[in-house]
Specification:
With 95 residues, the protein is an alpha+beta fold. The protein contains 2 helices and 3 strands; from the N terminus they run ααβββ. The relative contact order is 0.14. InterPro entries: Calcineurin-like_PHP_lpxH, Metallo-depent_PP-like, Phosphodiesterase_MJ0936/Vps29.
Length: 95
């Protein structure tokens, strides 16, 4: 199979490495050890948590956890995922 025009993962990794100190990443369903070898920050965690004052953001790709398979969340927690590649913002109960 031919690669799409402009497909340049090494260049993407180079640009991401420039801002590595600002990146919080989670492993996606197509990320591999080879991808990790190019990057200067970890991408192998299935999920991450970010605390903003008293609110927790649960970050995940979406193939393991998502709206139909929720992780353990508390009231006012925010689930952030992107597996579907479609923008959605919704509230379900207190989450």
């Amino acid at each position: 199979n031919a690669l799409p025009e402009g497909y340049a993962p090494a260049k993407v990794a180079e640009r991401l490495n420039e801002v590595a100190h600002k990146v919080i990443a989670v492993r996606g369903n197509c990320d591999s050890e080879v991808d990790q070898m190019l990057l200067h920050f970890p991408i192998t965690a299935p999920w991450q948590q970010v605390l903003l004052e008293k609110q927790r953001l649960f970050l995940t790709h979406g193939h393991l956890f998502g709206p139909e398979n929720l992780p353990a969340l508390n009231q006012n927690d925010v689930l952030v995922y992107g597996h579907t590649h479609l923008p959605v913002a919704e509230q379900r109960g207190e989450i």
